[in-house]
Design a protein that fits this description.
Length: 442
């Protein structure tokens, strides 16, 4: 019923000519004609009694369009399968304006994934990392907690100072009109923490419980709520209480503030958490080193359209991430040459790695068993309360994309392990603090 002819246009680019027998076109055309004949109305003809030639003359273009649409829907997938090609992106369709009497035809421009012939993995050389947790790393955590963990004690008659926590009621006005989202009741606010717009907290210094005050501020020009950006506003504010900050006197006191028995137990918890973080750091370091070595040793030529489609997807992810953080992706940012260059570089690197990792999987025959997926889901569920673990696992198993992502992550880990096992590697030891400093300076 269908015939396909494949013509190579370039590396990983093909044109597929698809021909569908005239009988198939006529059959579908007749079906649509019959449906239309039963419902069409024209002056001088009873419904359902319009002559066929009149029907074609009046509705020919629509009948042809509907027929072509159904032909494509019916035979599109079969045509791709018959071509023997596996598209990397959605094929481009082209329907010739002039059709032959032999049948209906259309063309598809198909871009396929490139294949890479891996250089011997045994020739790769790179460093793997062993990240260790030291007493200094633990002390850094304790010192940070001693500085950041604060409790607040309300003190009658206290005059608010920077670092104090005030509890306030407020209503915001633009001119004489209260604006949406500008009201709060029993709102805790640490003075100097920068939680509110610039200038707000400073005007509460020196106030005490029971004080009523008017706070005048100007919203920043780049404020996330566009209708308030750059506007002058006043907040009619009542101070409900003023609490002084109290820090832990020693490690035992800190442990009690955080719900631990004593200083030893909080250090034990810190070591456990840092050890897990160090393992992740070592894994990430080794992964990046293996990927860099793999990319440096192997050339991969990517079809431009594959790159363009990935750039669109990457840009969309950047926009979504910014929106989730309350930021706006402006037109100027999206058109900035440095931004576009960075996105393209990220897309090219990611696509090349996808091609090379597929070659590694094929070479090593790597797969992920269902039991490994189940074990990973159990590990992920450990962060939830006991009564929610089964619910989380069931939900994950019902989400195809989420489950595919877990499988892909596990498969990637196996690929990295295989590359490390084949390559010439040298292990370099560093403390967790050193690794974190490297990341901050990168």
């Amino acid at each position: 019923m269908i015939q396909t002819k494949v013509k190579k246009l370039g590396d990983n680019e093909h044109q597929v000519n698809v021909q569908i027998a005239q009988e198939e076109y006529d059959r579908i055309y007749a079906v649509h004609s019959g449906k239309l004949a039963g419902s069409a109305k024209l002056p001088g003809f009873r419904q359902g009694k319009m002559p066929t030639d009149m029907l074609k003359k009046q509705f020919g273009p629509k009948l042809h369009e509907d027929t072509v649409s159904e032909l494509l829907q019916t035979h599109y997938v079969a045509a791709i399968e018959a071509s023997g090609l596996t598209p990397a992106v959605q094929p481009e369709l082209d329907i010739p304006a002039v059709q032959s009497s032999a049948g209906f035809e259309f063309n598809m421009k198909v871009v396929t994934w490139p294949e890479a012939k891996l250089k011997p993995l045994s020739k790769l050389k790179f460093e793997t990392a062993a990240v260790e947790v030291t007493d200094d790393d633990i002390q850094t955590v304790i010192d940070r907690l001693m500085e950041s963990q604060v409790k607040y004690e309300v003190e009658d008659g206290r005059v608010a100072e920077k670092g104090d926590q005030v509890t306030i009621d407020f209503v915001g006005f633009i001119g004489d009109e209260a604006f949406e989202g500008g009201k709060g009741e029993d709102t805790p606010l640490v003075l100097g923490a920068g939680q509110f717009i610039p200038g707000f907290e400073d005007q509460l210094i020196g106030k005490k419980a029971g004080d009523d005050c008017t706070i005048d501020v100007t919203f920043p020009e780049q404020y996330q709520a566009a209708h308030l950006a750059g506007k002058q506003a006043r907040f009619e504010t009542q101070v409900k209480s003023v609490a002084k900050s109290v820090k832990a006197a020693d490690e035992d006191d800190l442990a009690k503030m955080l719900g631990f028995d004593d200083a030893a137990s909080i250090r034990e918890d810190a070591r456990a958490r840092l050890t897990e973080q160090a393992a992740d750091a070592a894994s990430q370091n080794t992964r990046e080193a293996a990927f860099d070595a793999l990319l440096a040793a192997n050339d991969v030529t990517l079809p431009e359209r594959l790159i363009e489609e990935d750039i669109k997807a990457t840009t969309q992810r950047v926009i979504q991430n910014m929106q989730q953080q309350g930021m706006e992706a402006t037109g100027d940012m999206l058109e900035d040459e440095a931004f576009k260059s960075e996105v393209r570089e990220r897309s090219v690197k990611g696509l090349k790695l996808s091609v090379l990792m597929q070659s590694v999987r094929d070479q090593a025959g790597l797969e992920v068993a269902d039991a490994e997926i189940d074990a990973e889901l159990d590990k992920m569920a450990a962060q939830y309360p006991a009564e929610q673990k089964e619910q989380f696992i069931s939900w994950m198993k019902s989400q195809k994309e989420q489950l595919a992502s877990v499988r892909e992550r596990l498969l990637e880990g196996k690929c990295v392990e295989y590359i490390v096992s084949q390559a010439k590697t040298k292990q370099v030891s560093k403390t967790l603090g050193q690794w974190q400093e490297e990341q901050n300076n990168a």
